[in-house]
TrEMBL record:
InterPro entries: Ald_DH/histidinol_DH (IPR016161), Ald_DH_C (IPR016163), Ald_DH_CS_CYS (IPR016160), Ald_DH_CS_GLU (IPR029510), Ald_DH_N (IPR016162), Aldehyde_DH_dom (IPR015590). The lineage of its organism: Eukaryota, Viridiplantae, Streptophyta, Embryophyta, Tracheophyta. It comes from Anisodus tanguticus. Transmembrane segments: none annotated. Homotetramer. Keywords: NAD, Oxidoreductase. GO terms for molecular function: aldehyde dehydrogenase [NAD(P)+] activity. The active site is at E267. This is Aldehyde dehydrogenase 1. PANTHER family: ALDEHYDE DEHYDROGENASE-RELATED. Residues 28-490 form the Aldehyde dehydrogenase domain. Belongs to the aldehyde dehydrogenase family. It catalyses: octanal + NADP(+) + H2O = octanoate + NADPH + 2 H(+).
Length: 500
């Protein structure tokens, strides 16, 4: 592992923070209480800005604005082509402001700046464009009724939506929730994670600049235990879309059930298997396995955190992983040489280190890493454990950090059983040149996304979501749009029709 210490300020001018207040009914406003909270730069532990701390009273105001915008405002009543035009303008503005948006996520979440500017932000704009293109393609169906009745279905916007998004991908999560809801004609309240509020506020004002009417997108920054809880239990919110931990997902469902029985969609944790069969080219697949755990410093729900390697190539594969880990650069996310930035905050930093200690105590062999960097901020070395057993804590629980558990297997049947021996079911990687093995394993693993000879193969048209404790319903694709639509059936008697 290499530590980077580039001279950053001469390379890039850190932008001034423009938006720190709540965004309600098209305006930036103080919280009702006047309270604020600190958002922290994980590069150094210093305060970036103080952000308005919304709570129940502010959620009430945001829901009221969204309800009026839905019940009486223009957005649900615009022609789909007009919604498309505004959304395409929104996407263009995202591209125009890509550098500043990437900088906000780098400062707030510790995400790498250059990939953010060149990959993540353009990909976010594409998600908005994808759903802009879907806005005028929302169709019901004509029904073949068994009686003299004409029947058809309408797809109507579900209403006021509460989006609760996590801190690991502030930009991607914003557009994955907001894009399809806008296309459907919904209005919404976004509650970003308290660790990463900055970019959500910026996106809200870009949406207004693009022509999204007041009240359609509202952003309430604040704590999950107050603002998030108020949103989930609000009687005038028609749906909740939540991405986060499985533990909080249970609380979201409970609050929704105890209020107005609003539907909930959940995208939760994962402990994804990355399965490597011995017919692959180690030189090609080992880098993919390493990226599968270290991308975004392991703070990704689909991280390939359980690496299963077939015994015939186990030793060679492990040696390659060790070699590559030694060249992995951990440093400031604004430094172009960095492969990995800091963990999002002190709490997550300490959580990851505690799991590393679990691995050591339970007898896993530490191949590389295992320590925090001796510098300011929340930096952790890429950490690889080998000889991991399935019942060890690091193999069972989601760590959400740069910690890989490596395990050996013999047969196809064995690895399928072990891969499925988890409460989660979000994603899996299958690496093989044998088509029969690829088909068998991909159909046998109980997970929402299977990547064969690739990993992190996200696309706006590819639905994403999980099985079991990884949640239900889907983001992205047309399935990501459908969850913001209601199906209404309409039936009318038809007399003396010549056709059935």
């Amino acid at each position: 592992m290499v530590q980077s210490n580039g001279n950053l300020e001469s390379q890039f001018q850190i932008p001034k923070i423009k938006f720190t207040n709540l965004f309600i009914n098209g305006e930036f406003v103080d919280s009702v209480s006047g309270n604020t909270f600190e958002t922290i730069d994980p590069r150094n532990g210093e305060v970036i800005a103080r952000i308005a701390e919304g709570d129940k009273d502010d959620v009430d105001l945001a829901v009221k604005a969204a309800r009026e915008a839905f019940d009486d405002g223009p957005w649900p009543r615009l022609s789909p082509s007009e919604r498309r035009r505004i959304m395409l303008k929104f996407a263009d503005l995202i591209i125009e402001n890509a550098e500043e948006l990437a900088a906000l996520d780098a400062m707030d979440a510790g995400k790498l700046f250059a990939p953010g500017k060149n990959i993540d932000i353009p990909a976010a704009a594409e998600v908005i464009r994808y759903y802009a293109g879907a806005a005028d393609k929302i169709h019901g169906t004509t029904l073949k009724m068994s009686r003299d009745i004409q029947g058809y279905t309408l797809l109507e916007p579900i209403g006021v939506v509460g989006h609760i998004i996590p801190w690991n991908f502030p930009t991607q999560m914003f557009v994955m929730k907001v894009g399809p809801a806008l296309a459907a004609g919904c209005t919404m309240i976004v509650k970003p994670a308290e660790q990463t509020p900055l970019s959500a506020l910026y996106y809200a004002q870009l949406a207004k600049q693009a022509g999204v009417p007041n009240g359609v997108i509202n952003v309430v920054t604040g704590l999950g235990s107050t603002a998030g809880a108020a949103l989930c239990s609000h009687m005038d919110v028609d749906k909740i879309s939540f991405t986060g931990s499985t533990e909080v997902g249970r609380l979201v469902m409970q609050a929704a059930a105890l209020s107005n029985l609003k539907p909930v969609s959940l995208e939760l944790g994962g402990k994804s298997p990355f399965i490597v069969f011995d017919d692959v080219d180690v030189e090609k697949v080992a880098p993919l396995a390493l990226i599968g755990i270290l991308y975004n410093k392991g703070e990704i729900c689909v991280a390939g955190s359980r690496l299963f390697i077939q015994e015939g190539i186990y030793d060679k594969f492990v040696k390659k992983l060790e070699e590559m880990a030694k060249t992995w650069v951990v440093g400031d996310p604004f430094d172009a040489n960095s492969h990995q930035g800091p963990q999002v905050d002190k709490k997550q930093f300490e959580r990851v280190l505690s799991y590393i200690e679990h691995g050591k105590r339970e007898g896993a062999k530490l191949l590389t890493g295992g320590n925090a960097l001796n510098r300011k901020g929340y930096f952790i070395e890429p950490t690889i454990f080998i000889d991991v057993e399935d019942d060890m804590t690091i193999a069972k629980e989601e760590i959400f950090g740069p910690v890989l558990s490596v395990m050996k297997f013999k047969t196809v049947e064995e690895v399928i059983k072990r891969a499925n021996c988890t409460n989660y079911g979000l994603a899996a990687g299958v690496m093989t040149n044998n088509l029969n093995i690829a088909n068998t394993v991909s159909r046998s693993i109980r997970a929402g996304v299977i990547w064969i000879n690739c990993y992190f193969a996200f696309d706006p048209d590819c639905p994403f979501g999980g099985y079991k404790c990884s949640g239900f319903e889907r983001d992205l694709g047309m399935e990501g749009l459908n969850k913001y639509l209601q199906v209404k059936s309409v039936a009318t008697p038809v007399y003396n029709s010549p056709w059935q």
